[in-house]
Here is the input.
Amino acid sequence: MFAKADIDRALSLFKSAKRLCCLCHRNPDGDAIGSMTGIAQLLEHIAPDIPVKLYCYDPSPPMFSYLSWITRIEQVMMPMEGDVFIFLDSAEPKLTEFHESHPQIFGKDWPSVCFDHHPTNTRFATVNFIVPEAASTCEILADFAEAIGLSISSEIATCLLTGVYTDTGGLLHSNTTPHVYRTVARLLRAGARQAVIVHHVFRTAKLSTLRLWGRVLEKISLSEEGGAISALTEGDFRSTGAEYSELTGAIDYVNAVPGMRFSLVLAERAGKVKGSIRTLRDDVDVSAMAAKFSGGGHRKAAGFAVAGKLVPETRWKVQK
Ligand SMILES: [Mn+2]
Here is the structure.
């Protein structure tokens, strides 16, 4: 699955580092957090004497507090000479939000290794493990550990299974391949705490989240193009007391309306409108729709962000 030359290069980069700096995308999801805490602990075995740092622009959602190493994630980063960066689940530098403050770490002159499953990955790192067929970055890391003959501890398995579960919607999305199930089997055998993950990730919701999702659902409208569309203003977030990150997952319910070509959830955030698009259909490519707004993603799940705000539009017609 991986080229031996890439594995050798990555391992020698890991072992030659002064510090190993793991970095995932901002607004981290279960795959970003799971892959970052998972690789950090694998690196401890690969290069035992080298300090491992974990960075994310935004704090981890509290639901992942059961993961080991979660408290070691820092939001302020100070790259130093000799650092080797490990990028997780990030298709391009700007998704980490460190691209403007620390552009140097994304250049070919700075040694780095990237693990990612997004087909839009720009291969910006020195060594790239990009596997678009993988449903999650955590799945790639499980294979990487196997490829280099590392056994996975129960703690690491819990981190990796978290990403496998969240990026497949609890093994329900169409990206849930036989290989995903094989990975799940391996991680469970390694002692992944499945019940803990299910409880925290799928069976726990704050009151503000439920109220926000209520807004999403009551505001669904159907467009002439066959889209189920909902839109949340900053006022919706204010009045429900929900954070932007609490929107994650709501779109799956919008996507449940029968007969639609796609679903779209728009949300205002800090002068931008962010859009998430999903489809259940094979003949619709939502990453192409997102690309029209300079976004990207997968055929069945994509997103974009444009500057501006949401303005309601009411259409009236005469009924005879
Ligand atoms: Mn992912």
